[in-house]
Specification:
Elements lengths: L1 H19 L4 E3 L8 E7 L3 E5 L9 H17 L8 E5 L6 E5 L10 E6 L9 H17 L9 H4 L3 H13 L3 H11 L13 H12 L3 H14 L2 E2 L2 E2 L5 H12 L4 H8 L3 H13 L9 E6 L3 E7 L2 E3 L1 H6 L9 E4 L3 E8 L3 E7 L17 E6 L2 H6 L9 E4 L6 E6 L7 E5 L5 E6 L4 E3 L6 E9 L2 E9 L1
Parallel strand pairs: 3-4, 4-6
Antiparallel strand pairs: 1-2, 2-3, 5-6, 7-8, 9-10, 9-12, 11-15, 13-14, 13-15, 16-17, 17-20, 18-19, 18-21, 21-22
Helix pairs in contact: 2-3, 3-5, 5-6, 5-7, 7-10, 8-9, 9-11
């Protein structure tokens, strides 16, 4: 009996290994492609195929494409049951490239990048850009087990790929390629949604740089898979602009309406779509000590707010409309003061606990500004679990735009972090100068943390 079980086990292992072994040749049968491809290299993650015109001296894809695919799976998860990326190279034909995913029968249900026209002899610059670009399309079209790219009509063929390429270069330690790519995109403009739009410089890079790097990119697809409409294992429709900004705000953990306004402009259509998206997909942006809801019983859109003072303009930037709050959740130890008028004027209502419906208080859809604070000094002291160090000097405090700092600690190579009142990182950067731009932070109390050689110094500041 044991021998039979052992034989069956070996048989299953052999069948699995054979199923995962890429074929030695592969006949193209898509679009105008009709080449017989020869497998030149494979390992557990990548299979590289050339047509007969690709020089045998071209070997960089063996390592690079495997590294890209391993990095991609590590960040975004698996893409089907076959672990391989099938990377196809042509020379002197089929200019450009295209992808296919394991959902697509057109390419035998494999994750594929197919590029030409070569000759692929440099293994740097454009050779890396185009191949990585095509992998970006696999990510947007098949990550999290869902087929389709609802954002494609908005960001088109290259905008998502641009930030993906930058992240891959950094993730693989290709700093010179990352720098080249970053510099190349600083002056790159597009004519959508308006002429002169700097997609990379004014939208994707600030999100990437300020709100989580690699992980903020992954979180966007997590939010899509969790919330966006699906039919079976495919997305059922495309996104509109308001939904696009809402989902990226969820990924970033903060309302990106101000960033979108600066990058794309803000139209009445965007406003309508954005507000509707927040009702249709009522996830909060990040975490806070007070959550305000559009409807009673914690329904409709929700905004999570930290300690601070919020004028009507600041609330609207967080996605909270005027006279639109109907229920509130308040963390223990905190209080929220709702003001009838903008700029903390008029009648005020103070809440120190949850309120499921403000109708009974006569405050339904009445608040135009609000203040959030710790209910006691003890709570304020424990709001962030880091000690305050007198070695760090910061100014001005309170600050509106640029926070400057000095410390006796050496700063070369230091990491600079800003934490909100709940201890969540809202900004992370490397030291380049003795100042950081805090204009995009909402009003409230924050902690500046300087980390270098395992030593950290911190100081609290108030953002106006």
């Amino acid at each position: 009996m044991k021998q039979i079980v052992y034989t069956l086990f070996l048989s299953i292992l052999l069948q699995t290994a054979l199923a995962q072994t890429p074929p030695a040749t592969w006949q193209e049968h898509w679009f105008e492609h009709n080449q017989l491809l020869n497998r030149k290299f494979f390992d557990n993650d990548v299979a590289v195929y050339y047509d007969n015109d690709v020089s045998s001296s071209v070997t960089w894809p063996y390592t690079y494409m495997g590294d890209v695919w391993r990095y991609t799976k590590n960040v975004y998860g698996s893409f089907g049951t076959d672990p391989h990326l099938f990377a196809i190279f042509h020379t002197n034909k089929y200019s450009g490239g295209h992808p296919s995913t394991y959902f697509d029968a057109s390419h035998d249900n494999r994750n594929v990048i197919d590029v030409g026209a070569g000759p692929w002899t440099s293994g740097t610059g454009g050779d890396l850009d185009i191949t990585t670009h095509e992998v970006a399309h696999i990510v947007e079209g098949a990550s999290k087990g869902i087929h389709g790219s609802p954002a494609f009509p908005i960001w088109g063929d290259s905008k998502w790929a641009e930030i993906f390429i930058y992240d891959v270069y950094l993730g693989l330690g290709k700093t010179s390629e990352a720098t080249r790519w970053y510099n190349q995109l600083q002056n790159t403009t597009d004519n959508f949604p308006v002429a002169g739009t700097h997609w990379f410089r004014d939208w994707f890079y600030p999100i990437y740089h300020n709100y989580g790097g690699t992980q903020v990119l992954n979180r966007f697809f997590q939010y899509l898979a969790q919330y966006f409409p699906k039919s079976g294992n495919s997305y059922s429709r495309d996104m509109n602009w308001g939904e696009f900004i809402h989902f990226w705000s969820g990924a970033a953990g903060i309302s990106l309406k101000p960033l979108a306004t600066a990058a794309f402009g803000w139209t009445t259509t965007f406003e309508t779509q954005f507000n509707q998206a927040r009702n249709d997909f009522p996830f909060a942006y990040g975490t806070g000590v007070v959550s305000v809801y559009k409807n009673c019983n914690y329904g409709g859109y929700v905004s999570a707010l930290g300690v601070g003072n919020y004028t009507l303009n600041q609330l609207q930037n967080m996605g909270v409309l005027n006279d639109d709050i109907s229920s509130v959740k308040v963390n223990s130890g905190y209080q929220v003061q709702l003001y009838w008028d903008d700029n903390f004027g008029g009648t005020v209502l103070t809440l120190t606990a949850d309120n499921s419906c403000l109708v009974a208080n006569g405050w339904n859809d009445k608040a135009s500004s609000l203040k959030i604070s710790a209910a006691s000094a003890a709570t304020a002291r424990s709001a962030t679990e880091v000690p305050v160090n007198k070695e760090l000097l910061i100014y001005p405090n309170p600050v509106a735009h640029e926070l400057r700092f000095n410390t006796s600690q050496p700063l070369a190579g230091a990491t600079i972090k800003v934490l909100d009142v709940t201890g969540r990182e809202v900004l992370t950067t490397r030291y380049t100068s003795n100042s950081i731009d805090v204009r995009r932070l909402t009003a409230g109390v924050y902690t500046l943390m300087v980390i270098n050689n395992d030593k950290r110094v911190v100081k609290r500041f108030v953002k106006q």
